[in-house]
Each structure stands twice: as C-alpha cells, then as structure tokens.
UniProtKB/TrEMBL annotation:
Described purpose of this protein according to its UniProt entry: Catalyzes the oxidation of 5,10-methylenetetrahydrofolate to 5,10-methenyltetrahydrofolate and then the hydrolysis of 5,10-methenyltetrahydrofolate to 10-formyltetrahydrofolate.
Membership in a protein family: Belongs to the tetrahydrofolate dehydrogenase/cyclohydrolase family.
Occurrences of domain Tetrahydrofolate dehydrogenase/cyclohydrolase NAD(P)-binding (ranges): 136-275
Listed name of the protein: Bifunctional protein FolD
Amino acid sequence: MILDGKEIALRLQNEIKTNVEELKKRLINPALAVIQVGEEKASESYAKNIRREGENLGIYVEHHKLASDISEEELLYNIKNLNLRKDIHGILIELPLPQQINKTKVIETISPEKDVDGFHPINFGKLFEGTTPFQPATAQAILTAIKSVVSIEGKHAVVIGRSNIVGKPTAALLLQENATVTICHSKTRNLKDITNLADILVVSVGKPKLIDRNYVKPGAVVIDAGINKIDGKLVGDVDFDSVKAIASYITPVPGGIGVLTTLMLFRNTVKAANLQSKII
Ligand SMILES: Nc1nc(=O)c2c([nH]1)NC[C@@H]1CN(c3ccc(C(=O)N[C@@H](CCC(=O)O)C(=O)O)cc3)C=[N+]21
C-alpha cells in the first residue's frame, strides 16, 4: 500500500495552525529565516515548499537567497544578525554549502535556541541523549510516517545512509523508540543481505532506483527519503513500482516524507517561538 504523506499532513497542519493562532493572540508572529546559498536542486525544492507552506500556516518566512560565491565571513555575519533579531524565531541554513565555506563553523554559529533543524552540536548531542527541543525535521517526518502504520518497538530497522541531516538522526529516533537499528552506507558489504532482514527500511542516499524489490523483505515498511531530480522530475531512491508489490507500505516521492518534513520544520519553529517568549 502507498503510505500517503498528504493524509498525515492534514492532521499536522491543523495542529500547527491552532498553535499559530494561540501565539498570535499573544501578539507573537512566529517567523522562520531560511538561508539558501546557491541553487542545489534538493535545497531549491525545500525552499519552494517552505515558502508555500509558511503562507498556508500563517508563519512568516524570510528567504535569504545568497550567491554561491559568498565568503564565509559574510555568511557568518548574516547568521549573527538573525541570531540577534527578536522577530525571528527559527533559522534554517540549507545544506550542502559550497566548498569555500566551513559547514561546521556555520552550524555552530546558529544560536541553539533558533536552531530549528537541530543540527547545532548542543542539540545534536541532546538528540542522542533524548532531550533535544528540536528533533531534525526529516527524522521526525520519517518516524511519524512509520508510526502511522506500524509499531516500532522490537522491530529491526535498517537505515541506508549516514548523513547528519537524515541517516544519523533517524537512527537515533528509531533507537529511542526501541527498534533494533542497523545503519548501512557506501562501504557496507552485502547490503542486500542486511536490508532483507529489515522490518522497516529507511533509504536516504541520493541515488535514484538504488533499492528494488530484491533488497526488500516481503511485508516490510519502506520509507523513501531520497530527493533527486531526473529530467526535471522529482524522484526518490527507491524503485517505487518494483518495491510497491512486495512492501506492506511504501512512501512515494513526491508526496511522502518531503511534505511531512516541511511541516515538522514549522512545528519546530512554533516551538522555538513559544520557548523564546516564555517569561518564567
Ligand atoms: N539544513 C537542511 N535541512 C534539510 O532538511 C534539508 C536541507 N538542509 N537541504 C535540502 C534537503 C532536501 N529537503 C527537502 C525537504 C522537503 C522537500 C519537499 O517538500 N518535497 C516535496 C515536493 C516539492 C517539489 O515538488 O518540488 C515532496 O517530496 O512532495 C524537498 C526537499 C530538506 N533538506
């Protein structure tokens, strides 16, 4: 069966809209700044969806689109400026960043209170501790999609991809939900043997059609978190038609994890606005 992100999205949109109304009654306008450097495809897609969804939810989105040859110094200056602004509650820096920029330094410059991606080392550490206020959006989206169809406790979850954006945080959340977690990556041997043990298979590597039915145990839940563009069309990492026949559930691209990711980002933004407006 197809695990439709748009259905879960409706519930989340209502929940967020209620929280936004409550904030606005207290004269707080929740606001997110998105910094995009260059025009990488997946980042472009995310920025587009963030702007559209921000309008729908009544959350202010300030899109800073910067040239790919920007200096590190200038980028850091922009971030520090956003850190100081009381009217901005969340800051998202689209990754990847160009060569000349030190990604670690950039992420460490974001104020942890505004780090709605949850990538600052303080929040990333707390993620593994189970205490972060900002769980990374894609990982939250993946967990929510899985929980909408199966229970996680005791299941074998295999995550393909070990990025800081998706693979690692997703593995952390699955572990927290008492799954047995295996993380696979480009150096993994006998990938197929491992993925065939998975009750839950999460794929996030950026390779179209990497996973076909030969990698999937019959009845498994397959989550495709890949965002690739082929001939101007958005596709995931899973060969959808091949896997659909054997999986119990599979998320489509587009219309799956991406849709939910954007909403989780706004949920974190609302949370940031609430935390920043607390007086005691
Ligand atoms: N700091 C950072 N955090 C991220 O989470 C992050 C990032 N950088 N860089 C780029 C990737 C990519 N990503 C997407 C999320 C949602 C959609 C999305 O909403 N996609 C829609 C379709 C949009 C369309 O049609 O263009 C869908 O899948 O249905 C796309 C891409 C988050 N990323």
